[in-house]
């Protein structure tokens, strides 16, 4: 079964997002996730900041998901097909 569909192209919005996202280093998202966990742990030590600690700690998963999206865009994004057509 062939899962590739080369007839479809990305929309203008997706292409614009991919162009901007590809400029961001992938490890930035990893550091953001680790940073949010560190801030959450620090806030957890302050007993009056329990809800804030949980809120900030939940940022780690979205940061990691954004990092995965960023990596996929760099490896499989619209510009992969554009580069292949240029060669």
Walk me through what this model shows.
This protein has 87 residues and is mainly alpha-helical. The protein has a domain at 24-77. It is 74% helix and 0% strand. The model has no long low-confidence stretch (mean pLDDT 82). Keywords: Membrane, Transmembrane, Transmembrane helix. The chain crosses the membrane at residues 53-72.
Unreliable parts: none
Average pLDDT, all residues: 82
Beta content: under 5%
Task: Give the CA-CA distance, first to last residue.
Answer: 27 Å
In brief:
The chain is an all-alpha fold and 87 residues long. The chain is 74% helix and 0% strand. The protein has a domain at 24-77.
Give descriptors for this structure.
elongated, mainly alpha, 87 residues, 5 helices
Blueprint of the fold:
Layout (H helix, E strand, L loop, with lengths): L11 H10 L4 H20 L4 H8 L2 H17 L1 H9 L1
Keywords: Membrane, Transmembrane, Transmembrane helix
